């Protein structure tokens, strides 16, 4: 056969993978001979920030014209990440020929992060015609949809919005009080009787210092009170990004922007619960 990977299930994929691995060994050897490994910590940190955004599974299929699974992409991306890091080291070391050659070879597998963020990726949720932001949250089997609107449009956290067409405001039954939080059309203290659940919901407002800046309306379903409270907090944190995108670092550091993936472990056959066994008596 023309290729040693002819008898493999994915000949084109393994041909590219082994080529990248051979290139990685070559770059490592060149940099070790130049005595530039490992790089200083500040340079290594800037190199990690400048890594390209690699193509997704579907984009790999369209560009390279072969099928690829998630595990196969993960293996290839691991090699490409190392190549991108070593390419940055070669750039800082002044090895222009090595930097240009490797950069040209891996350029077809991804694009720069700034190009991706300026194009398809959305930095924060958009406001609707009434100035509301929306966030979806989940925890265990609970899901929550949260809407937020600024109590005062002159606040620095309230981004200006331009409706596409003039829309008359909906009829209101009365003025809303500041920091009104409604969950399933019920006040927060009425729906969640536990203090811990209420503190969990308003935690995104506390860590960002935005207590009293928004009126909040949430629709939640599924699960118990603890899961519903965490789901509302997750949706609330994502809705805050619509009004105050500069708070992303604070919310991310507090672990409020991403869903908690933990769920209850399923019951097993022959067990009382997930792992608890039945009482056994010999006689």
TrEMBL record:
One of its GO terms (cellular component) is mitochondrial small ribosomal subunit. InterPro entries: Ribosomal_Su5_D2-typ_SF (IPR020568), Ribosomal_uS9 (IPR000754), Ribosomal_uS9_CS (IPR020574), Ribsml_uS5_D2-typ_fold_subgr (IPR014721). One of its GO terms (biological process) is translation. One of its GO terms (molecular function) is structural constituent of ribosome. Signal peptide: none annotated. This is Ribosomal protein S5 domain 2-like protein. Belongs to the universal ribosomal protein uS9 family. Keywords: Ribonucleoprotein, Ribosomal protein. It comes from the Eukaryota. Pfam families: Ribosomal_S9 (PF00380).
